[in-house]
Amino acid sequence: MEKNHLRALAEVLACLQGERFAGAVIMRAEWSLLSAGEGQTEALRVLRDRHGLMTVCCQAAGEQLLVTMLLGHKPVRPAVDMSTSDKSDLTCQMAGREWWRISAAEVRAFAAAVGDGNSIHQGDAPVIPGLLLLEKLLAQRPRGAAKLVLRFFHAAYAGFVFVDWPSGRLWQEERCTAAFAWQEIKV
């Protein structure tokens, strides 16, 4: 697998700070490889900024990240908490599926590493940054995949995230938190 530069892109995106971005959540993230010579320098462009929705495009090291955010949103944690349940028996029974354990410390470390000061990524039960989930998916990028689209439905919190590779879904606490799809870019 080729190295991805998602953290460099996340650092570019993290320059969006301040009261307006407090509690902002990512609704959609699209990562893609750029053709040779494109996106070598770090850049951030705001493509849309209306009605509490902002779409931005970041480029760095030959990769691009297109993100749509909902501004001023405060996610509410659901009542069911499966974060401490033992999932080891289930993992081996379901081919093409796995559990990811994402701790609160890992969430805070990722946010600190990329400069993401959003308060929803702090505390004992922080929201997992969408870009951390994107990074984990990219770590298992199939050969030839040059684009990954990730659409969020609900916030995912530190704890266990169920990855259903065949259906392209992420689950937590009995609800689908996101859907993802890989695409090949044909030359």
Task: Give an overview of the whole structure.
Strands 2-3-4-1-6-9-8-7-5 form a 9-stranded antiparallel beta sheet. It is an alpha+beta fold and 187 residues long. Strand 3 and strand 4 (63-70) form a beta hairpin. The chain is built from 4 helices and 9 strands. It has one domain. The model is unreliable at 82-93 (pLDDT under 50). 29% of the residues are buried.
Using brief descriptors, characterize the structure shown:
alpha+beta; 9 strands; single chain
Counting H and I runs of at least 4 residues, what is the number of helices? Answer: 4
Quick one: biggest sheet?
9 strands, antiparallel
Mean pLDDT: 83
Unreliable residue stretches: 82-93
Derived from helix and strand composition plus strand pairing, the structural class reads: alpha+beta
* Spatial separation of the terminal alpha carbons: 19 Å
**Which outline best applies?**
globular
Proportion of strand residues: 35-45%
Count of extended strands: 9
Number of self-contained structural domains = 1
Q: What's the alpha carbon Rg, rounded to whole Å?
A: 16 Å
Residue share in helix: 10-25%
The strands making up the biggest β-sheet line up spatially as 2-3-4-1-6-9-8-7-5
* SSE topology string: HEEEEHEHHEEEE
Brief characterization of the structure:
The chain has helices at residues 6-13, 88-93, 104-114, 130-138; strands spanning 25-33, 43-50, 53-60, 63-70, 97-102, 145-152, 159-164, 169-172, 175-184. With 187 residues, the protein is of the alpha+beta class. Mean pLDDT is 83; it is low at 82-93.
